[in-house]
């Protein structure tokens, strides 16, 4: 059986919805980075034992939150011993603006995964970009590098977009399928 972990930070409760959708698709364990940027020892064991790790963070000022970056820097311990080498990796982000520089966040996740010498998985989804496209279509935000969600700045966590959640679920499912094949 494959083990998948979704490690994420959410400052105000929106990105956690996306994390839950990815975890649902991947049948993964959720690992929440706390407000101080910390994980428990048990969380680190979960990550070390996982076949795949999916990173998640809101986009803040064009990149990951400082709490996620603290987690990333702490993972230098695993980097030193190449403990996460050849694991499968992916990433997702949520932000207020349709573009909002979300790709910078995904690019940071990709770089972190490559530092750990992992194997990156993109969405495998076509964008929904025709005249007939609707906001809650799958991959309406249109990302191939990892899953994106766009949440208006005044929306509550219960108002996150259903299509973006389904996009996240499908992405988790793809990561699980590829992890299984590799294993
Ligand atoms: C400090 C800060 C910086 C932000 N920077 C961006 C940004 O660069 N681009 C963007 O589209 N939204 C930005 N936002 C909006 C958040 O990405 C958005 O509110 C998101 O839904 C927050 O997710 P969370 O509830 O999981 O923290 C920012 C919000 C905060 C608090």
UniProtKB/TrEMBL annotation:
Domain of life, source organism: Bacteria
InterPro entries the record matches: Flavodoxin/NO_synth, Flavodoxin_CS, Flavoprotein-like_sf, FMN_Rdtase-like_dom
UniProt keywords, alphabetically: Flavoprotein, FMN
Residue ranges constituting the Flavodoxin-like domain according to the UniProt record: 4-183
Cofactors demanded by this protein: FMN
Official protein name in the record: Flavoprotein WrbA
